From TrEMBL:
Location in or out of the cell: Cytoplasm
Reactions the enzyme catalyzes: Endonucleolytic cleavage to 5'-phosphomonoester
Protein's name according to its UniProt entry: Ribonuclease HIII
NCBIfam families per record: rnhC (TIGR00716)
Annotated RNase H type-2 domain residues: 89-303
Function: Endonuclease that specifically degrades the RNA of RNA-DNA hybrids.
């Protein structure tokens, strides 16, 4: 039976290193291909790696992954040291967006996905929000919010600028994750998720140090993983819901500003920020002022005047 591994970025890179053979002819969409005794291995741009032949299972098993059943073939998901079967557990996942964007909010979401919903969400196309277009985000977010208990904390720039005087950005993120997770745990009572998965941005010890003194700290069955969406669809769902709220805020702020606010923190952002100030608007209502962009904007304004 063929085996498929859905590899995250790092795993895919390692597999490519192992199998890539410059002499191989590549099928459409393929990135590498290797023919070995008893097994051929093909890696696709989508991150899927297909193992075919008598030794398919044996070769795929080298990659420290857990196999879950699928209709057509066995699909294997990269699970690291997470418990066996983790991708099909009921999981409360959390993720945030907006940390690298000068304009717009910091938005954190948690979504609870039951055992039965995992496959359904995957079939709907729920995956890493960075790979999805805005219209797809909107469509999927609405479906997720209809199906799953969730909570969102959307810190608009004004609130963000107030809080960032008191906390560093990672600490603020930790507070937001803890808050949204706690809210969903309350909403789903008396149910409990089998695990909680946080899209990791600091080490677990730093995360909990940041939460010191908080009245409620979500600690039980919590796992941290970078690229959390590749370990459980609940994190992918949380990233989509967060992006949806963030998009809506960006639209509202753009309307308030009378021009389209770009995401990111590049030169384009500085130019738009200059226009806002020239219009007499308060940058603190639109942007995260502690970013280096603020100094650049002030410098640009000084040069103009
Ligand atoms: Mg994240």
């Amino acid at each position: 039976m063929p085996e498929v591994i859905k590899a995250d970025h790092d795993l895919f890179a390692k597999m490519k290193q192992t199998y890539a053979n410059p002499a191989s002819k590549l099928a459409p969409g393929a990135v590498f291909h290797a023919k070995m005794p008893g097994v051929t291995v093909t890696g696709y741009r989508t991150g899927k790696v297909l193992f075919q032949g008598k030794l398919a299972a044996q070769e795929a098993a080298r990659w420290n992954t857990t196999t879950i059943a699928n209709k057509n073939s066995k699909v294997t998901t990269h699970t690291d040291n997470l418990p066996t079967g983790f991708p099909s557990w009921s999981v409360l996942g959390s993720d945030e967006v907006g940390t690298g964007s000068y304009f717009g909010p910091l938005t954190t979401a948690a979504v609870f996905v039951t055992k039965n919903q995992g496959d359904e969400l995957q079939e709907l196309g729920v995956q890493d929000s960075k790979k999805l277009t805005d219209p797809t985000i909107i469509k999927l977010a609405k479906q997720i919010m209809r199906l799953c208990p969730y909570h969102v904390v959307n810190l608009d720039p004004k609130d963000y600028n107030r809080l960032i005087k008191q906390y560093n950005q990672a600490q603020l993120k930790a507070l937001c994750h803890n808050l949204v997770l706690g809210k969903v745990l309350q909403k789903i009572q008396p149910q409990h998720p089998q695990a909680i998965l946080i899209d990791q941005f600091v080490s677990p010890s730093t995360y909990y140090r940041y939460l010191n003194g908080q009245p409620e700290i979500v600690k039980q069955n919590v796992y941290f993983r970078e690229k959390g969406e590749s370990y459980h669809v609940a994190v992918a769902a949380a990233s989509i819901v967060a992006r949806y709220y963030s998009l809506q805020s960006m639209d509202q702020l753009s309307q308030m500003a009378g021009l389209t606010l770009p995401i990111g923190a590049g030169q384009k952002v500085d130019q738009v920020a200059v226009k806002l100030v020239q219009k007499g608007l308060d940058l603190g209502d639109f942007a995260k002022l502690h970013f280096a962009n603020t100094q650049k904007v002030n410098r640009l304004l000084r040069n103009i005047n």
